[in-house]
Design brief:
With 313 residues, the chain is an alpha/beta fold. It has helices spanning 30-42, 58-66, 96-110, 129-141, 155-168, 191-198, 228-231, 236-239, 242-258, 262-270, 286-293, 302-312, and strands at 3-5, 12-14, 16-18, 47-49, 76-81, 115-120, 145-151, 173-177, 201-205, 276-281.
């Protein structure tokens, strides 16, 4: 496993990280989830991601139970705040009240004294950015959060947050968590350049296009039993187009030439971006994370990148 700095911070994370969206705390049996986290750690993965909203806190509990086996200082643990956690008017968003209450609730569920990265899970148009950043800064000063991040913020929103933090001497964002894959490249035009300018790294989610880039889905065939497309929607149906499945078939040929799987090719392609600190994958079984971890350190030459670009175009 190879490691990268997150933005211009001194924090180093594994190139492949393990998340718990749509998996732990419900969809995957707890024993499988814990075994998968332990296998990831054995492979050198030091970065584990969750969120308060995943299964309404149940994912955090499973992750907290699994990491008890590790030295706390050997891992980087991330969680998030924004989405509704109750029916009340203050049970959502990025107000000081919601951030503080959910930070303490997450620490309790994870059973830790601090999290390494605390993300604003989305942008909140109803809360001033300075209120959000002040609350985050207070958590950093209290030692409950080490670094601040955002997820799915636009280039303009990130720029505003950086300028406010500098003006008010608040802790700066070091990381953004956007969707990014061969099939979802929106961040390349504006978000990555802005983040490079301000020393903010990317930890990307859905780097395998919610499983489409694993090659397990075939054009004209029903989704395999037990797969995400067979059991849930969550956006995957938008990626399961004939055009995308044709691209995956062509990418399999490129991967075969390199002696790797199409999933490993997709992850190595993500990691070609120096602004990407880590590719965040989901895994329901230990063998899945083992396959994904092999993408770390795979370098794609210019000829291969040109072939891939021709297919994706």
């Amino acid at each position: 496993m190879e490691y990268r700095r997150v933005g211009r911070s001194g924090l180093k994370v594994s190139e492949i990280s393990l998340g718990s969206w749509l998996t732990y705390g419900g969809y995957v049996a707890e024993e499988n989830a814990i075994n998968t986290i332990h296998k990831a750690y054995d492979l050198g993965i030091n970065f584990f991601d969750t969120a308060n909203v995943y299964m309404r806190g149940e994912a955090e509990k499973v992750v907290g139970k699994a990491i008890k086996a590790f030295n706390r200082d050997s891992i980087v643990l991330a969680t998030k705040v924004f989405w509704p956690m109750g029916d009340g008017p203050n049970d959502r968003g990025l107000s000081r009240k919601h951030i503080m209450e959910q930070a303490h609730a997450s620490l309790k569920r994870l059973d830790v004294d601090y999290v390494d990265i605390y993300y604003c899970h989305r942008h909140d148009p109803e809360t001033p950015v300075d209120e959000t950043l002040r609350a985050m800064d207070d958590l950093v000063r209290q030692g409950k959060v080490l670094y601040v991040g955002v997820s799915e913020w636009t280039a303009e929103q990130i720029t505003e947050a950086v300028h406010i933090a500098d003006q008010k001497l608040l802790d700066r964002i070091i990381v953004n968590q956007p969707q990014y894959s061969m099939l979802a490249r929106k961040i390349e035009s504006q978000v990555i350049p802005v983040c490079e300018k301000h020393g903010i790294g990317q930890v990307v989610w859905s780097p395998l296009g919610q499983g489409v880039l694993t090659g397990k889905y075939k054009k004209g065939e029903a989704a395999p039993e037990g797969s995400r497309a067979a059991s849930t929607n969550n956006g995957i149906k938008n990626l399961l187009t004939d055009e995308n499945l044709d691209k995956v078939e062509q990418l399999k040929g490129v991967a075969a030439e390199l002696g790797i799987t199409v999933a490993q090719l997709a992850l190595a392609w993500i990691l070609r971006q120096p602004n990407v600190a880590s590719a965040l994958v989901g895994a329901s079984r230990p063998e899945q994370i083992e396959e994904n971890a092999k993408a770390s350190g795979v370098k794609l030459d210019e000829e291969t990148l040109e072939k891939i670009e021709a297919i994706l175009a």
